[in-house]
Specification:
With 828 residues, the chain is α+β, with helices and mostly antiparallel strands. The protein is 51% helix and 15% strand.
Length: 828
Amino acid sequence: MLQLGLFSRRNSKHSHDVRHWPWMMSLWLDARLAIRQLTNSPGFTTISILTLALGIGANTALFTLVHAILLGQLPFQEPGRVLSLENGYAAGIGNSVGSKDSVFAFNSGAQAVQTIEAAAIYSASGVNVDVPSGAAVRGTATETSALFLRVLGVTPELGRGFVTHEDVPGADHVVLISDRFWHGELHSSPGVLGSKLVINGFDFRIVGVLPRKMNFPVNSDFWTPTIFDEHTALREAGAFLPSVVVRTRPNASIHAVQSELMARAMALAGGKVSRERSPSVTPIAAELTRSIRSSLLMLTGAVLLVLLIACANLACLILVRVERRRSDLAVRIALGAGRGRIIQKQLVECLLLSIAGGAAGVALAYGALQGLLVLRPAALTTFQQPTLDLTALMYTAFASLATGLAFGLAPALHASREDPVNALKTGMGRASLRASRLRKTLVIGESAVALVLLTGALLLTRTVANLDRVPLGYSVQGLLTFSVSLHGAPYNSTSESNAPALVNFYNQTLQRLQAIPGVISAGSVSKLPLDTGPDMLLTVSTTKSERGVIFAAPRVASSGYFAAMGIPVVAGRDFSPRDTRSSAKVAIVSRDLAQMLWPGQNPVGRSLQCEWFCTPEALVIGVVATTRQYGPRGEMVPEYFLTYPQQDWPDMTFVLRTAAAPQGLIAVVRHAVAEVDPTQPVYDTYTMQQRLDGNESLVRFEMFVLTMFAGLAIALVGIGLYGIVAYSVAGRTHEIGVRLALGAQRGAIVGEVFREGVLLALAGAAAGLGCSLVLMRVLAATLFGVTASDPLTLGSACALVLAVGASASLLPARRAALVEPMAALRGR
């Protein structure tokens, strides 16, 4: 029995091998034949591989970027349970923020929510850090509550995290540092734990180093307890804009958390909560990528359309090869080759092409990725740098196989349906009606897709052009800007004692900057136009009874700032050295604020009252032109300017107007600041043009990438149209020869062939026009000064597609007219 059983299993295995061996052998033979045929057609093979390499390479590059930003795994334990909470105060979480019992009140509110396991509060701010190796460096510090790491599920690489009692003022002189800062500025010091770090002039003790991938909040190098004592100086300009992150309980869904928070908010508000004030939770990954998710998804769709065009093009080329092999296929079918074997043979050839195209696409993807990194907008610089890793290569392999099947399946099915009798009658090179219709359908589809991409690219191009034409109220050419935040002794003293130190630093720095050769003018301001940082609007009025009526943004500036920025003083005068701390408090207002406060009157010499800064009031000495503080898209905000000798403001941005290239003065500027105080780092060193470009960098990035995709698509459409018209002419050579022999005019032949290509392009443009009217709605929020259904843009895109169709048809049409009747008849 045992022997019989062993024999049966062995025999079954042998039968299994015998059953599969012929298929494997036929696959091997088909692969060898396909390699030989592709080698014998170097032109076709080269064009096919390059087309695939462009499509697959572009997809791989963009997938790598999207994977690193949208799909990359966060360095958190069970990141799906980590949520960002907005308007938590409505549900009793986050009340009393800003007081000394803030952390206690916050934790108490969070513990009352049944679906939340833990919650933490955090806020990031720029800081100056003294390092043992030299001068101070600039970094980002995040104030957090003690449960921050527990909420995220992050364990320190070295040392420990915060403990509960370190949320109490007086016990909060501890800091966690990033792995980047440890290996960089501290040179991987083995004694890092317990060592001292001076942040904004205050001593902190390092208790832990966080893992290398920990980059939350973005670009943070330091994490400190949430402190509300004298260390509020850690918050530049006193800003503390708290965010809340929570970890759900293991079995609690996002919907359950949202429902409980909303129920608590309704209970606290007496059953009525406005939509704007309602608490809401968002997965942390979605929250971090909210600003760029739609852009990346749009570009992903665009690059997939490019690959679709490439597939359609190759399907047309393969169909031509199938038509040229009709006699060979007919003989194979007549000799008994099954439909499956014919399909297999065609798919093997297509898969070999796609694999070769994918391999070449990896090299192109690497180059494209480097280009994307150079052009990467400011919105993407906060995420990890994408690299061609194993995941990207696996995607390339999948894309290659899927592409091979996509462009090879239709020709393979067409070949398997060939009627051997009809094929042998018509002979090689005579196209079947079904194949001709399929090729034309594919080319029409290519044209439609190309028009969609072209429309998107033209809309974004017009958007960027419209943004560039918006008057900003200042000149960006020849401007170099940099920032300084003054911390440490003597700048961290009380307002009365630190004022001379602040004023002395600004005075000496401006004097040195103005003395630099090539500098035309120099000034400073507390918040520069195009600064993306948070802003505040305070009430201003002409009398105390009118306070709260008008909101405006306060600025602290120096004399010479308006001249450096190119902002005209339209009435009164600029600040001067006579405006000191002991003189009368003065202010300069923007023109729109002047019209609000004193409509139709001259504001110069009148009194301005404002919160915090004007005590008791300020004398208006000038009016300046209104500027677009937030860039071309931003709304104009009324502003009033106070002079720095009369204010205690430790954070300033300096502006230099230069006669030469501004970038060439960066080293000189750093040296000038170091001469005044070498312990204060210079940061955010940009030209004003760079700031303006960064303001709409995401739109410019979209425009560039989509334009490249559209250009590639149009080129592929041109190649496809040329191929189908040229093949049609080649198949009709005998017919054209007969017609010419019977007296047909060569011009009529040219017009007929030319019309064939143009009509295909026209059909594609019509289909693409309808698709564009629907799909361009995804760009509606991005566009500026142009609508998604703009007739001029749609008309231009259609005209370009038709022009490509006409150009691709012209050469085959001319060749058709040059056919010699006798040669064509003899070639039958």
